[in-house]
Each structure stands twice: as structure tokens, then as C-alpha cells.
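Quick review question:
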């Protein structure tokens, strides 16, 4: 009787170790850029807005995040494994959000802006679009006379959405 208790304890411990250290084989596969994509060319976006600095700010942030978060090195279009291209289709600053008032007038105290882009990541070797979005938008809120802060927020959100889209490819 004592022997069978020892066997069941040993068997229980063996099962416990197998479960603890064997782990679960379930995981998320897929997603991310193909392994062959190690370099990227970011083509200057067509800017259909009247804000000249917008394209430069967006491109600088996109380049930085592609390197930092996706581990891609930048290359010329002819040498790159993939190409990012797009269009900045809309930029709407000065949308009033909050007002302050005194006895004589009300003034917008906070404003927001909207930024809209079409973007695609194209695998040059495979000859196919890896990820694309049309009408991708983001908003940024800012205090009166601080439009650059709102623009920075909107650009950050858009670039983050692009990076997450490239990582997930769902």
C-alpha cells in the first residue's frame, strides 16, 4: 500500500514537471513582415495639403520608427526589399474643441486637427502589396496657437498605426 502511494506521488510530480516546463505549444504565428524584408525605401509622400512641413515631419517620424521598431535599414528604392509610399490627402487644423468666454466674447481654448493618409508597403521581390490602408486618419488636440503640438500627436498616432499594421498584417 505504501508502494502504490509512492508511485502515484512520483507520477503526479512527473506530470507537474511536464506541464510546468513543457509549456504550451500554442502561439501566434504569422504577422510581421516577411523575413526577406530587411531593408526599406520610404518614398516621399505626395502632399496634397497646403502644409509644407507636414510631409517632412511625417517622413522623419516614419523613418525613425521603421528602424527602431521593425529593425529595418533604409536603402535606396532600387536596392530595398520593400518600398513605403503614400499620399497625405487631408490636413484640417483649427477645429474648435473647447471654448473659454469672458463678458464680451467666447474664444476657442482648445483645438484639434485631422490628418489623413493613404499608404502602402510593397514587397519588391515578391511583387505584391504587403500592407495598405486608404483614408487612414488621426487627430491631435492642441492649445490655442500650438498647432505643432497637435500635428505631432496626429503624426505619432498615424505612424504607430502603420507600424502595428506592418507587424500584424491581419
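Suggested answer, residue by residue:
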Amino acid at each position: 500500500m505504501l508502494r502504490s502511494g509512492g508511485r502515484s506521488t512520483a507520477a503526479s510530480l512527473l506530470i507537474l514537471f511536464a506541464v510546468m516546463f513543457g509549456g504550451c505549444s500554442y502561439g501566434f504565428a504569422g504577422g510581421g513582415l516577411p523575413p526577406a524584408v530587411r531593408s526599406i525605401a520610404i518614398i516621399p509622400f505626395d502632399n496634397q495639403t497646403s502644409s509644407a512641413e507636414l510631409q517632412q515631419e511625417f517622413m522623419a517620424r516614419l523613418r525613425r520608427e521603421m528602424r527602431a521598431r521593425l529593425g529595418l535599414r533604409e536603402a535606396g528604392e532600387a536596392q530595398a526589399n520593400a518600398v513605403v509610399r503614400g499620399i497625405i490627402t487631408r490636413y484640417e487644423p483649427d477645429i474648435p474643441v473647447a471654448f473659454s468666454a469672458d463678458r464680451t466674447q467666447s474664444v476657442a481654448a482648445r483645438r484639434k486637427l485631422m490628418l489623413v493618409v493613404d499608404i502602402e508597403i510593397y514587397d519588391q521581390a515578391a511583387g505584391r502589396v504587403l500592407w495598405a490602408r486608404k483614408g487612414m486618419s488621426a487627430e491631435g488636440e492642441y492649445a490655442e496657437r500650438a498647432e505643432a503640438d497637435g500635428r505631432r500627436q496626429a503624426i505619432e498616432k498615424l505612424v504607430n498605426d502603420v507600424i502595428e499594421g506592418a507587424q500584424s498584417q491581419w
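Why it works: The CA atoms of residues 14 and 34 lie 40 Å apart. Residues 16-30 have pLDDT under 50 and may be disordered.
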